[in-house]
Amino acid sequence: MFPSTRLRRLRRTATLRDMVRETRLSTRNLIFPIFVQCGRQRRDEIPSMPGQYRWTVDLLPRLVREVRDRGIVGVILFGLPDSKDELGSGAFDPDGIVQQAVKQIKDVVPDLAVIADTCLDEYTSHGHCGILRNGDVDNDATLEVLARAAVSQAAAGADIVAPSDMMDGRVGALRQALDAEGFQQTPVMAYSAKYASSFYGPFRDAADCAPQFGDRRSYQMDPGNRREAMREVALDLQEGADIVMVKPALAYLDVIRDVRANFDVPVAAYNVSGEYSMVKAAAGHGWVDEQTVVLEILTSIARAGADLILTYHACDVAQWLA
Predict the structure, then answer these.
(1) Exposed, middle or buried: residue 176 (CB in 10 Å: 0-12, 13-18, 19+)?
(2) Which of the following is catalytic: 84, 106, 247, 280?
(3) In the annotation, is 247 catalytic?
(4) Does residue 238 belong to any structural domain of this protein?
(5) Which of 99, 221, 241, 260 could tie 236 with a disulfide, CB 3.0–4.6 Å?
């Protein structure tokens, strides 16, 4: 007890604080999201996400070499197709935009982990994450299309497929389809606890995937539910998920903590677009110091229990940590 015990002793200098730090950020824990668009020689800045761009496939080599050289463990790809339809057929097109990007990246930096987001919202004309029947998303009809998309992505060379649709049973459907096509070694990173969040706004602008009507609350989780997330994670693991994810991250640190406490599997967390853009906006006005705030946010996500953090700040953080 005081005065014999003085916890401030180990806070006195930067060296001492670093020696006893419990949670450490590393570039090996970071995954950088990339938006890929059709065309050539285009790098279009996303207005609602300062510092982030939509890239054409031919410009990816320079970007991913930089990502690799900064020590970042992997990237996750989101596609903007040149056309959309009711079925979202661009998601499983062997020559689709994400499939092209996967092949390009693996040719250039084969040691970089390439994750393909597996969902339909970027490819459907209505902007929902599944097949519509009578104005509602038909869960079971959607599973077949998602499975075709995952197989197509794996065939293109994706190291991991990541279903983000929140359809019931989709992990099992993907696992069965991947195994049947000879992709038994392809892991599934499931968006297991994905909430119907208002923090996705800038992403929907970036990926041009806002719903044309209604919302996604009938399939994404209610923000008020914490215990339900444990059921979602447990079901995904039973169906064969290799990595589970909580999305968003910052507003759901308690859920990340619960997942880490209850399941001994790799846990990912997505530091989403709205969380990114709020920091960029505040920093742009001089209201916060961007570097220290970002490092504090990502440290809190890691401290809550995330092994992997998907974040648009990844390249900046890698530079700061170097």
Answers:
(1) middle
(2) 247
(3) yes
(4) yes
(5) 241
